[in-house]
Design goal:
Structural class: alpha+beta
Shape: globular
Oligomer: single chain
Distance between the termini: 28 Å
CATH architecture: 3-Layer(aba) Sandwich
Strand content: 35-45%
Largest sheet: 7 strands, mixed
CATH superfamily: Gcn5-related N-acetyltransferase (GNAT)
Number of helices: 4
Length: 163
């Protein structure tokens, strides 16, 4: 049985573990050094249930993926806009977990007062591009060659959707 719920502090080690998988893969985040749980505590604390939730996808008592709704640039005029980020355990990808998380986040957006969701992703993250397009996100911007991984340059796409 699976469910999507708000993440708790007890989930933080698992959230960090999943995120660190993406760092190691070098295809889904611009972070390049793994995080410790302690380093992610402040990040976790800004994700309040009523404004910037952090959703956990749980199956049989184990978190298999997560999605965060985060402030976009932290400026007052941008308060109705939020950035969504999502990560799924690499051993569980392709099972619809990302889709379930995105559907949940989009359905919850009106409760949060959000009008625009943005996703910022590396250009070679084709799975994420497909997921976003499936949910009606459109490519709103492109920043060429802004990231570098072991000498390989990579751009970033900005995808957006009105919610």
């Amino acid at each position: 049985m699976s469910s999507i719920r708000l993440a708790t502090l007890a989930d933080l080690p698992r959230l960090v573990e999943i995120y660190n998988q993406a760092i190691a893969a070098k295809n889904a985040t611009a972070d390049t050094v793994p995080f410790t749980v302690e380093q992610r505590r402040d990040w976790f604390q800004i994700h309040t249930p009523d404004e910037y939730p952090l959703y956990a996808y749980e199956e049989e008592g184990r978190v298999l993926g997560w999605l965060s709704v985060s402030p976009y640039r932290g400026r007052p005029a941008l308060a109705r806009t939020a950035e969504v980020s999502y990560y799924v355990d690499y051993g569980c990808q392709g099972r619809g977990i990302g889709s379930a998380l995105m559907a949940h986040a989009l359905a919850d957006a009106p409760r949060l007062g959000k009008k625009i969701y943005l996703a910022i992703l590396l250009e070679w993250n084709t799975a994420s591009r497909r997921l976003l397009e499936k949910f009606g996100f459109e490519r709103w911007g492109y920043l060429p060659e802004v990231a570098e991984f072991d000498g390989r340059l990579c751009g970033q796409f900005y995808y957006g959707r009105r919610v």
